[in-house]
Amino acid sequence: MTSLSLFPLHTVLFPGSVLQLKIFEQRYLDLVKTCMRNNHGFGVVLINDGNEVNDTPTIHRIGTHVKIIDFETLENGLLGITIKSTHKILILKTTAQHDGLLIGKTETITDGDDSTPEHLERYQHLSEILKTLVEHPLLKSQYSDINYQSPSEISYRLSEFLPTSNINKQSLLEISRVEDRLIQIEVLIEQLQM
Description:
With 194 residues, this protein is an alpha+beta fold. It is 36% helix and 32% strand. It has a 5-stranded mixed β-barrel with strand order 1-3-5-6-7. The longest helix has 15 residues. The termini are far apart.
């Protein structure tokens, strides 16, 4: 079990996701400073109820561990950071500090990767859909190193890129088997095409 600072958002991140954030609340400025000084990450988790700003919201129990991969001072004077998700986490318990920052007792979640060469063939069409999506200029620059031979990565990137609700994305994140996630993605794609 690991103690980890949590950053609740109205966004779902998957392992490998890249996200830019503007940091202005003191509690998160302190979080970023501590993470950079000690070279460690923090947790990002979807808000279940509440707000991102000036609130201590209720959160979902599964999120992702992220690392800060870049930072800059923005034109408006705010701190901008770029984070990349490394793996899924289960949040067993949370406590709020005096400033409202959530600290979680967490465990790493490892997906069961049951992929085989047959899976690659079976889900080749999903790989092609992903290749098409990544041609978008906003995605192409951030996701130039996707492994299209990895069913796990295909499932995470499609989960991230599909235009669906955060609740659907959270459900995809919580699926523990790669093939089950790919099957659910197929269902979502069919629904989007109706």
